[in-house]
From TrEMBL, chain A:
One Pfam family it belongs to: SoxD
One term of GO molecular function: sarcosine oxidase activity
Name the UniProt record assigns to this protein: Sarcosine oxidase subunit delta
Taxonomy, superkingdom: Bacteria
InterPro entries: SoxD, SoxD_sf
From TrEMBL, chain B:
Protein name listed in UniProt: Sarcosine oxidase subunit gamma
SUPFAM superfamilies named among the record's database cross-references: Folate-binding domain
Pfam families with a match to the protein in the record: SoxG
Stored InterPro entries: SoxG (IPR007375), TrmE/GcvT-like (IPR027266)
Taxonomic lineage from the root: Bacteria, Pseudomonadati, Pseudomonadota, Alphaproteobacteria, Hyphomicrobiales
UniProtKB/TrEMBL annotation, chain C:
InterPro entries: 2Fe-2S-bd_N, BFD-like_2Fe2S-bd_dom_sf, FAD/NAD-bd_sf, GcvT/YgfZ/DmdA, GcvT/YgfZ_C, GcvT_C, GCVT_N, Sarcosine_oxidase_asu
Family under the similarity heading: Belongs to the GcvT family.
GO biological process: tetrahydrofolate metabolic process
All copies of domain SoxA A3, residue ranges: 512-596
Pfam families found in the cross-reference section: FAD_oxidored, Fer2_4, GCV_T, GCV_T_C, SO_alpha_A3
Highest taxon of source: Bacteria
MF (Gene Ontology): sarcosine oxidase activity
Source organism (scientific name): Bosea vaviloviae
The name this protein goes by in its record: Sarcosine oxidase subunit alpha
Positions of the GCVT N-terminal domain: 612-884
Amino acid sequence: MRITCPYCGARDAQEFGYLGDANPQRPDGMDATEAAMHDYVHLRDNPAGRHRELWYHGAGCHAWLVVTRDTRTHAIEAVEVARKTKAGAAA
Amino acid sequence: MADATTAIWAPRSAWAGILHEGHIGLAGSTSITIAARDGLGIASLIAPAAGEAALAEAVKAAFGLDLPATPAIARAGHHAAVWAGPGQWLLLAETRSGFSDALQALSGVAAVAEQSSGRAALRLSGPRIRDALAKGCMLDLHPVAFPVGMAALTSIAHIGVHLWRAQDCPEGAVFEIMVARSFAGSFWSWLSASVAEFGCDIVASGASIGRG
Amino acid sequence: MSTQASNKQPCRLGSGGVIDRTQTRSFRFDGKRYEGYAGDTLASALLANGIRLVGRSFKYHRPRGILSAGPEEPNALVELRAGARREPNTRATVAELYHGLEARSQNRWPSLAFDLLSVNGLVSPALVAGFYYKTFMWPASFWEKLYEPLIRRAAGLGRAAGHEDPDHYEKAFAFCDLLVIGGGPAGLSAALAAGRSGARVILCDEDFRLGGRLLTEKREIDARAGSEWIADALAELASMPDVTIMPRSTVYGVYDHGIYGVVERVSDHLPVPSAHQPRQRAWRINARRAILAAGAIERPIVFAGNDTPGVMLAGAVRAYLNRYGVLPGRQAVVFTTGDDGWATARDLAAAGASVSAIVDPRREIDSALTLLAGKIGARVITGVVASASGGRALRSITVREASGREHSIPCDLLAVSNGWNPTLHLTSHQNTRPVWDESIHAFVPDALPAGLAVAGSAAGRLSLAQALEDGARLGAEAASACGFTPRAEMQPPKTDPESLGLSPVWRVKGGKGKAFVDFQNDVTDGDIELAAREGFKPVEHLKRYTTLGMATDQGKTSNIAGLAIMAEQTAKTIPQTGTTIFRPPYTPVAIGALAGHHRARDFRPTRLSPTHDWSREQGAVFVEAGPWLRAQYYPRPGESDWLTTVNREVRAVRSTVGICDVSTLGKIDIQGADAAEFLERVYINGWKALPVGKARYGLMLREDGFVMDDGTTSRLSETHFLMTTTTANAGKVMQHLEFCHQVLWPDLDVAMVSVSEQWAQASIAGPKARAVLQGVVDPQHDLSNEAFPYLAARAVTVGGGLPARLFRISFSGELAYELAVPAEQGEAMMRALMAAGAEHGITPYGTEALGVMRIEKGHVAGNELSGQTTARDLGLGKMMSSKKDYVGRLMAKRAALVEADRPIFVGFRPVNRSERLRAGAHFIGIGKAATMENDEGYMTSVAYSPHLGHWMGLGLLRNGQARIGERVRAFDPVRNGDIEVEICNPVFLDPEGARLHG
């Protein structure tokens, strides 16, 4: 696969690390219930199709990215900078 | 500083014991030339939140450099600035002398961290250098895709590198490349194997950053 | 042309072909010396020498010859080269002949001509489809002892070298606008069209000579010989600077987003690689567009004895005649179901062979063809070949005429033609299936990987005219798609006429003997019928039950016949029966090529500390720590074992002073107005109140509540911190911090960058540490206990004004400091410290001594930070702040993670102090059985303490903290250990910390 980093341009997927679903938002640890935090840490959808997911350009500019990818075809629809989208998935 | 003390504390090049002047690979042919780039002043600059413009101004005032907004290298006088990630640059100086003091001009407008000692840099040139780099570099270094002045952070042989195309000479492209110091030996293991078929001269350093 | 029976190459034609008769190549096959020419393959050279028996088959040890002239070859597999370079299962049909080539037939014993295990053919009822599943099922113990060795002896395909590969391999990356796969007429046309527009083109061909089928056929383009057209095309392509021609390069796989895997056989045509050349190079080609112009593969016909040496594909016969100048037989019969086979009869006759018959089941034959038959004196028989016989060499065939009458014809060559399958393998690598095209009776590409187009025969457009036209059109289209302007349409070249009529026959029933579908895996038509009878009808079941198409040739010549027979058995059509999907690689790829430079020491990069060479000078033994090599201990002459050395190093630190390189720790520079706030959120403990100039121990969790890493972090100014991480987790922590900053809290004003490489760092530990430092740090810095107390962290200078940082932190429990200088002065720092400490007997120590001392002090390290421990488990629960949110805070409080019964960090010592402890031993209650139910935890770290005079251990024990003073068993079945240990406080030495603060 090739992923087009918004900063660095099209790069081989070997340069990136994968984290997973970009949608879950981290609840505030002081206010959240244990159940909400559990959902955030552990529960993930596994869609066949369009998926927003977090990738890390570790061998490049170190940017965390939100990649919208079709899990069936690997076609990439969009690559955004996580910092600007407030993605928020689990550490 | 007493001379004797200075002698004890003489810096040791990242390439010491690794790079030796002379010829390697195919005998009777030199299609690639490699020179160590020792003694550079290097510092990482990171702009604070919403502080890129102020940093750019300060860099312009102190060094006459325009910070590149994209992966590229900008040069002015004895200094250069290379894009090193969003809101991040490496400031390069030809020499160390006065470098730490010069960095003071940026305190308050950037997170400054000196890295002069932490990078091992090489200057690579010759008609076959692109062919040698292709054995590990996953980037298209053809001039239409990677023109003079362009820079990139990428990885070669599982080692993170920072490289830029410094210049195009009649003898081919000139690239400068930096790896983290601890990887110098492993990087050389890959590079020396990759240049061998073309024949390669290893020469003393001397040229200035980004120039022939 | 005429046959000229030279003594040396009795079947070599006197002229013709694209071999160089002035360049002799001598080679050995099964130890005997032969000669061929430059431009030969091993197969063509063997045939030129009259060698037809080349190997024995996989299961039945049947004699086998040469079926094809290309990469599809299922029979002529040999061991190439000798010694460490020996390579089994090499296809003789693609092995380029070189001087001194050495090949051996495989799978025969004791010799090729006389093979004892061909008796397998006689007991063949036991070896039918599914025999693995049936015969060898019972009893289970027989499998290892009897069946497997037996099968390994009897079945197999050559022997691996068994030595380390002496050659070098490379990887390489390339980029282009257009990748052309195949250098035949379609591929060359495509490359020309795109190249002329200025596009960057790479053309790969698996062959060593470009031209494809045009090399093997007597064809004309624009009224000139095909060879001239090829030469012109190659010359024009060579003149284009952005066109790269890669012969000997197989495109083996199609991957996402225009990535193509290619293996270039740089040196396989040489006895050994030239100086500084790899044997092979694995390319990863990034192409915006690609054109598959891989041609087609001819299909055999299934009939009894169709594997007899001398039965050959008709197109291969033409290749040997026209490309290699070899006459594969003198008395030939052609068995064809289409017009194409008749060209073989023509070319054989022209080369001087006698063609006694052309057997074609079709009732309607083009009159031009029958006229040709008359001209060459070949009898035309409307019928089929029912069987071939002769054992090690074809002697005769039995023809069954339409009337059913059978008769025998003597011959030494049977050329078989049954139509062509497009070489479409690459089109299905992205999980798309081909579709059946009734007009050519073959599967053709349907849905294609993005960016890939298919030209000529590979698309099922089998004529030369179509190949040239497709190539030119698709090449221009690809160039346009990449933003180039193709030159104005040029008139496609004119070709001589060809006829392509075909009515395939998949098998001929009723012959005497075995009829093979898959030659390489010895699958017969009977096996497929058996699979149908036993219910293995779907194509994927058929494949696995019979092993059809599962050999290294991946069924290139067998899949369609197998499907056709299954279709017949189940009264379906071939498209209804389906087809399997081809996966990479198209042909076998050596693992060495995929590994490239990265093997042995270069398997992964090694990181060396800035003090590495100094440590080596001191005689250090190094140990791998993640990617790093660290000094493990520094043996001195006379020290016979590592424990003696380590004990000396520990004693030196505890009694006077030692130095240890700690440069490998991760160092992260963290700055910004919100830097302290950021640390609050990633560490469990508090940071805002940390004074400038002070260091603090910090512990960070993963969001699931388990410990991620630990280290000391120092405050250099209000807005500037320096974090240290463990050596092993440095990269992981950096990634985690960047995640926290960029994804979780992008609004925080904080900047972080790794400075691990910038600083060399040494620990100076022991009662004399301060005295040593005073000889190195510039005198204006007051290092007294009052001025520079425990956990002080400040910038200092050394050597008369050189920048350095000094931290008073201790892992050993002694008075200790860490001094950091720029990495290029790391060695100088070690020498300066050694010089300053000489009068105190300063001793370098390594990671072993460091480990002993941290265990003596009960500090956790990598063994305890296992990813399964919480702060509470490690006795660090008190550090967890209740006043703030931080990563892992909530999840660490889950009920199961705060149970009293969880394994908790404690110390252990042997009840009998002379006994040795072992890390990994499990704790079992005294008197209880060593079962999983009674497992109470395990020993994480052990060391011999020279100070205490016995072994000590750290470990995780159920409710451990409450059980101090009790005893348990440390049960270690791996090393037969089972001893009683006392549970104790994990701090074995100086629990008050008097030494630390001295």
